[in-house]
Design brief:
Number of domains: 1
Number of strands: 9
Order of helices and strands: EHEHEEHEEHEEHE
CATH superfamily: Metal-dependent hydrolases
Helix content: 25-40%
CATH topology: TIM Barrel
Largest sheet: 7 strands, mixed
CATH architecture: Alpha-Beta Barrel
Structural class: alpha/beta
Shape: globular
Strand content: 15-25%
Number of helices: 5
Length: 208
């Protein structure tokens, strides 16, 4: 079965840079035909946990993660719910993810107006389950560089809108091919580790 999941979103619940109400995010994601979304607020799980509950009330799957500003750049993190990790060195975050059974995905690695890891992703490649190859706030060139790096390293890549406003919702997402429904963080982590997924731009067909 296939699951379409937008892996990267920010809401007013916890991200000061966002003007996107979580209920609008959920409503528009349903209208776009997504099966689930990830809420990945900056350096905290608080808003994502609230979003999961709101999603349940609206009959839609919201998966909690966070976008941690590591010492080397922004990283999407699932399965590590510790607070106060901003500035953590990548090797320490990597060890924590292994201990918790979580996964790490460098966010928008080549976006120039954000805290991005750039080519240093390669230095820590063994820590990453995937790379964010398609990001809604990146230019085509920046996304292309991320995809090329993922391919060079032999690491799969994900897609996420990185939505901060209504107009950004459901621009990019990830299509998973899995035997089990992805209804929570644990299921998402298993699907990511299985590697059977592809990043998609809205309006384009998945190759999975």
């Amino acid at each position: 079965m296939k699951f379409k999941i937008d892996m990267h979103n920010h809401t007013t619940l916890s991200s000061q840079c966002s003007v996107l109400d979580v209920r609008d995010l959920i409503r528009l994601s349903i209208e776009a035909g997504l099966d689930a979304i990830c809420v990945t607020e900056h350096n905290t799980m608080y808003g994502a946990r609230r979003a999961v509950m709101i999603g349940r009330d609206m009959g839609f799957t919201v998966i909690a993660g966070q976008e941690i500003a590591s010492a080397s750049g922004d990283i999407l993190v699932f399965g590590v719910e510790d607070e106060g990790l901003q500035g953590i060195p990548v090797p320490e975050l990597c060890a924590l993810a292994k201990e918790r059974g979580g996964v790490l995905i460098p966010a928008h690695p080549f976006r120039e107006n954000a805290f991005s890891m750039g080519d240093s992703v390669a230095e820590y490649a063994e820590c990453f389950t995937a790379i964010e190859g398609l990001n809604g706030n990146c230019s085509d060139r920046q996304n292309r560089r991320a995809v090329e790096l993922a391919m060079k390293l032999g690491v799969p890549y994900t897609g996420g809108s990185d939505a901060h406003s209504i107009k950004m919702v459901a621009k990019y997402y990830t299509v998973f091919d899995t035997d089990s429904p992805i209804i929570d963080t644990y299921g998402l982590i298993l699907a990511l580790k299985a590697g059977q997924f592809t990043a998609v731009k809205a309006g384009e067909r998945s190759t999975v």
